[in-house]
Amino acid sequence: MSSNYSRTELGFFLYHQSLASFKWLVHGFSLRYDPQTGQELSLGFNEYQPREVVENNRKKLVQTISGVLAASELIKVSDGDASRTEDEACLVTLQQIHSDLVYSFPSDFPKKFSLSGDGLITDQTGVMLSVQTADCLPVLMVDPEKRVVGAVHAGWRGTLKEIVEKTVAKMQTQFSSKPAHCLAVVGPAIRCCCYEVGEEVVEAFHAKFDYASTLFQSQSMGRKTLDLAAACRYQLLHAGLVADHIFADPPCTSCHTDQFFSHRAERGKTGRMMGIIGLRTKE
Ligand SMILES: [Zn+2]
Q: Of 2.60.120.200, 3.40.50.300, 3.10.580.10, 3.60.140.10, which CATH number belongs to 5-279?
């Protein structure tokens, strides 16, 4: 694993060194196991675990991060989602649908409905934006000048729809962020070593991106694998981020199922990790 990803004191999170100096920021990528209990720590609802198990894991997550966010000033996120407990109140989640839909919190959030989409941005303190993954890219973004954060879920479909670029664009229009000031970190995701894709994916990327040939590797038996993290890097550069501010070399989820959930390696029967980012209420 790249040495830029370190375990937090909490044990079940990785943080990235590039963002560690921002004391007003909380961020992290959850791991598969809670080192204290040895139990799996899925933070996304999935097909093979009872809902209450995931709800309890989220409760634990929120209790843990509440301290660092300044618990007394947490904003209560009331989106009318009956499945959301009071303990999850500061966690902003989406029904992820492999889209290019990006929402600003709280202005884009209706009172009564949960939203479907794959990108979140905010300038509010006391809330955590979150995305759930088990191979897809979790991308966390920060504009340290305007103090704006973003979280993106990007699989091959979202990448094809340029969701990462669209998230940067929304940070610009909504909060006047300058892309050259922004940083982006990609969390654990399936890499080119393991991410075999069909011809339809290869063709779709070639039809859309003139650099597509650099994203695929030829394997034995005519198979092709896709480097989604590299595609993400291209989009961030195209959006105006500078190369030194892009950290897109995460560990491979499929190679390391002892640390991460991998939808591909475990044929769909697995949990979900969470990438989270938020602004503290107090520094
Ligand atoms: Zn791999």
A: 3.60.140.10
Residue 261 token pair: 């959930």
206-243 confidence digits (pLDDT tens): 999 999 999 999 999 989 999 999 999 999 999 999 99
Residue 256 Cα to ligand 1 midpoint, Å, equals 7
pTM: 0.91
What is the C-alpha separation between 138 and 181, in angstroms, rounded? 20
Tell me the CA–centroid distance for residue 227 and ligand 1, in Å. Answer: 10
* Residues sharing a CB contact under 8 Å with residue 271, sequence separation 6 or more, in sequence order: 32, 40, 41, 42, 43, 44, 46, 48, 49, 54, 134, 261
Q: Which residue has the tokens 């990006």?
A: 102
Using the mean position of ligand 1's atoms as its centre, give its distance from the Cα of residue 257 in Å.
10
Q: Which two tokens stand for residue 123?
A: 């300038």
Distance of CA 167 from the midpoint of ligand 1 (Å): 27
Q: How far does the centroid of ligand 1 lie from the alpha carbon of residue 268, in Å?
A: 16
pLDDT tens, 110-137?
A: 776 678 999 999 999 888 899 999 999 9
- Gap between the Cα atoms of 221 and 198, Å rounded: 13
CA–centroid distance, 8 to ligand 1, in Å, is 24
Ligand 1: centre distance to CA 272 (Å): 17
Protein residues within 5 Å, CB atom, of ion ligand 1 = 191, 193-194, 252, 254-255
